[in-house]
UniProtKB/TrEMBL annotation:
Keyword Membrane: yes
Lineage of producing organism: Bacteria, Pseudomonadati, Pseudomonadota, Betaproteobacteria, Burkholderiales
Protein name: Iron complex outermembrane receptor protein
Subcellular location: Cell outer membrane
Membrane topology: Multi-pass membrane protein
UniProt key word DNA repair: no
CDD domains: ligand_gated_channel (cd01347)
Length: 803
């Protein structure tokens, strides 16, 4: 890309407010005693700055940089209105800091000895454009392999977008580049490099995805978000197509104040792709060794006078045989569009929509390990030996067919400097026709297959008003958050429900059962599980000088269903201390309110609804951000209401599950060729305070003591080829409440490579990934009686063309 020679003429100011803001940014450099203008030297411009600037409106960041550098920065502030600059921590020059602040804004700021001038980015006389990037202190795009896939900030629900270094919570951001390079198409694929997250099912064998964070199973209803608002699933996570996401933000631990209702394990916030300042043109194709083919197109940019209108369009088509032999098949199509309109420089309206159709054949919901292998026997016993994931257990005529639609809109208003408001709404619908199987198997491999035919639908609507602002009291800077949220969730199963035991066999020679021809239809019985969630929340982040932050917050929750109406206040208290700009230490206390359990159909008290549960979490940690690496460590203790099925078959919500442990994570660029992502979790999860005490002190089912994950890349110095490798280890997990049986630990290894070149003038990236190279057979686990095969060796070969 070529740029014209920089000129430092005074910008054109069209409004008095614009002139005031721009002059305020330049004032520190030009307003000196005697009204003499001090021109900074080249040394002053290139002087390293020690920065600790939070994510905030772009105009405020420019003002902060001008003050700290002592350099005039002229600009038309109308260009900055409605734009946000990311957090900046550590050492960088003014040139590097401005490049980072202006990423994605369509603006640039050439720097010279006389100062800087912010202007619209020129694509160059040849019309070439570059993709949107964030430039970090070492010049690498933020979130890329060259920057160890590191993100500087994350959205945090009620707290808005915050610097990761200044956040008193454990957060991992999975960037778009990492998703692309690992060829991830599901949440299970996306999170495999994070040791704190354990999948409980996989994308292909099972009816839906299940995740646990720090040993706590995430709720289908309240722990998965799209742009901070609820998505709900049926028989698993909401199955959001990953190709339409810009990143995935994982909050490890309770998010009560930040997001409202949910289990205290964590929050998975999926960030959708949005219009970009510079055009995006990309087509990717991919094939797997089993015969699945995928095509993905991604288009985005801006148009109109002053680029007032933005668009982003994504489309995905995938079909073919899965790795499940003799019957596994997938057909998946999805499309999304995101639009925005800058009505005025201070007012932006956004709207987005996504639709997906997904059918997978030869699927089962769970394998229940019992003593006799007979259907409907849910009394847990020793599990059979793990089977390779390519072995088909469910009959080929079983399937899961889901169709989902989401629509969202928001209106963002920049009221005044440091004050913003956002009104947002999202609706999510999912209809599912599930003709899946339940499997029951004993340790010797004798099993029964029971087919379930059940139409179901879920729907959620959430509206939220969020006001953020700030003011100063003496030397204390306050960042305020005020908000109100209303969420209606409804789930319904058809009154036409069919079930049939297909037969018995051995896992060594599964299947061969006749198709009973189950075919249910939708018979409306009304919304069976309606919920209404209402909350008011407020927080104040007090910046006590440059080193201390104190966060005080509270959320008033009201939870209403057919069975109860309960209110509770969940507070948050946290402190952050920065002894030096690149290191922060923190402590936080969080409470969360989650939906009470419903007894399953198989319990003697089937469909009994229990009241909401309040969870508590205490966490201490430290984080560091350096030029080439970042690291974090946290110790935590979380308590959650305990639910389980007794030996008599009664489902109970009784006692507490206590999760305490330590979490370590790091991302590093080791010299030029090496990139390393690594994480570890050491967990002590046990049951306490049960009414009869028979389970006290025993380990909580499904929670492993140790989990490790690593991902490494090596870029060959002589050619544009990068070799990759991954490793994941999960230790043994107890199967039942009494800890009589357990699943063995397992480890998997991945290998891959990517090659970057140009074909027909297009930047082209070829990717090859071999997941589970050793073809390890292992069980995934969700709760105490749900086992699903882990994925077998999988080969993925793809090419991405950017133009």
């Amino acid at each position: 890309m070529r740029h014209p020679t920089p000129t430092f003429s005074l910008p054109s100011f069209r409004r008095p407010r614009t002139l005031v803001l721009a002059c305020a940014a330049a004032l520190p450099a030009f307003a000196v005693p005697g009204m003499a203008v001090a021109q900074p030297s080249q040394a002053a411009v290139e002087r390293p700055l020690q920065l600790s600037i939070p994510a905030q409106p772009l105009a405020l960041t420019v003002d902060a940089l001008a003050r700290q550098a002592g350099v005039g920065i002229g600009f038309d502030a109308s260009l900055a209105v409605g734009k946000t600059a990311p957090a900046m921590q550590g050492t960088m020059t003014l040139r590097q800091a401005l490049a980072r602040a202006l990423d994605g804004s369509g603006l640039e700021a050439p720097v010279g000895t006389g100062g800087a001038s912010i202007r619209r980015r020129d694509a160059g006389s040849d019309g070439a454009t570059l993709p949107t990037v964030t430039v970090t202190a070492d010049g690498a795009p933020e979130g890329s392999a060259a920057n160890a896939y590191r993100a500087a900030s994350s959205s945090l629900g009620a707290l808005g977008t915050k610097s990761l270094l200044d956040t008193p919570f454990s957060i991992n951001v999975i960037t778009r580049d990492l998703l692309d390079n690992q060829q991830a198409h599901s949440l299970v694929d996306a999170v495999k490099s994070d040791a704190a997250i354990a999948p409980g099912s996989n994308y292909t064998n099972g009816t839906g995805e299940v995740l646990s964070v720090r040993g706590v199973l995430l709720s289908y209803r309240n722990n998965y978000k799209l742009d901070g608002q609820d998505l709900i699933g049926f028989l698993g996570a909401p199955q959001m197509p990953v190709e339409h996401l810009e990143s995935i933000e994982i909050l490890r631990g309770a998010g009560g104040f930040l997001y409202g209702f949910g289990t205290p394990g964590g929050i998975v916030n999926m960030v959708s792709k949005r219009p970009t300042e510079t055009p995006v043109r990309s087509i990717a194709i991919e094939g797997t060794g089993s015969g699945t083919a995928l095509v993905h197109a991604d288009l985005g940019g801006r148009f109109g006078e002053n680029d007032r209108f933005g668009y982003r369009i994504n489309a995905v088509d995938e079909e073919g045989d899965t790795y499940v032999k003799d019957g596994g098949h997938i057909k998946r199509r999805s499309g999304s569009v995101a639009l925005d309109w800058r009505i005025t420089p201070d007012l932006v309206w956004s709207v987005d929509a996504l639709q997906q159709e997904r059918r997978i054949d030869a699927v089962y919901y769970q394998l229940v390990p019992n003593a006799d292998g007979r259907a409907s026997n849910y009394a847990i016993a020793a599990a059979p030996a793990a089977l390779d994931g390519s072995t088909r257990l469910a009959s080929p005529f079983t399937y899961s067919d889901a169709r989902s639609t989401t629509f969202g809109t928001s209106l963002a208003w920049h009221i005044a400097p440091r004050w913003d408001a956002r009104l947002s709404y999202r609706q999510w619908k999912q209809d599912m026709q599930s003709n899946h199987s339940f499997l029951f198997a004993n340790a010797a491999g004798a099993y029964s297959e029971q087919q379930i035919s059940l139409p179901a639908r879920v729907k959620s609507e959430q509206a939220q008003l969020l006001v953020t602002g700030g003011f100063d009291t003496g030397n204390v800077r306050h960042d305020l958050v005020l908000g109100i949220s209303a969420n209606d969730i409804r789930a319904q199963e058809s009154n036409d429900y069919q079930s049939k035991v297909l037969g018995t066999a051995t896992l060594a020679s599964p299947g061969g059962f006749a198709d009973p021809g189950l075919s249910t239809t939708w018979i409306d019985g009304g919304w069976a599980f309606p919920e209404r969630q209402r909350s008011l929340f407020a927080s104040d982040t007090l910046h006590l000088g440059d080193r201390w932050d104190l966060i005080l917050g509270a959320r008033h929750n009201r939870f209403t269903s057919n069975s109860y109406d309960k209110s509770a206040v969940t507070p948050t208290l946290a402190a952050v201390f920065r002894p030096v700009p690149w290191l922060s230490t923190y402590g936080s206390y969080v409470e969360a309110l989650e939906q009470g359990s419903t007894a399953p159909r198989t319990a003697t008290n089937a469909n009994e609804v229990f009241p909401p549960i309040k969870s508590k979490q205490l966490e201490f940690g430290l984080k560091t951000e350096q030029a080439d690496w970042s690291a974090s460590a946290a110790v935590f203790r979380t308590t959650q209401g305990l639910t389980y099925t007794t030996e008599t078959g009664r489902y109970s919500q009784d006692g507490e599950a206590r999760y305490q442990g330590m979490e370590l994570a790091g991302k590093a660029k080791l010299g030029r060729p090496w990139t390393l992502l690594t994480s570890a979790v050491f967990l002590d999860a046990e049951n306490t305070k049960t009414s009869l005490g028979q389970y006290d002190g025993l380990r909580t089912p499904g929670a492993s003591k140790r989990q490790f994950a690593a991902y490494v890349e090596y870029a060959l110095p002589t050619m544009p080829l990068t070799l990759t490798g991954g490793w994941r280890y999960v230790s043994a997990r107890p199967l039942d409440m009494a800890n009589n049986w357990s699943l063995p630990g397992y480890a998997t290894f991945d290998l891959g490579a990517r090659y970057v070149t140009r074909m027909a003038g297009l930047r082209t990236t070829f990717r090859l990934n071999l997941d589970n190279v050793g073809d390890k057979a292992y069980w995934l686990m969700a709760g105490s009686n749900r086992l699903v095969q882990g994925a077998p060796r999988t080969v993925k070969l793809g090419a991405q063309f950017e133009f």
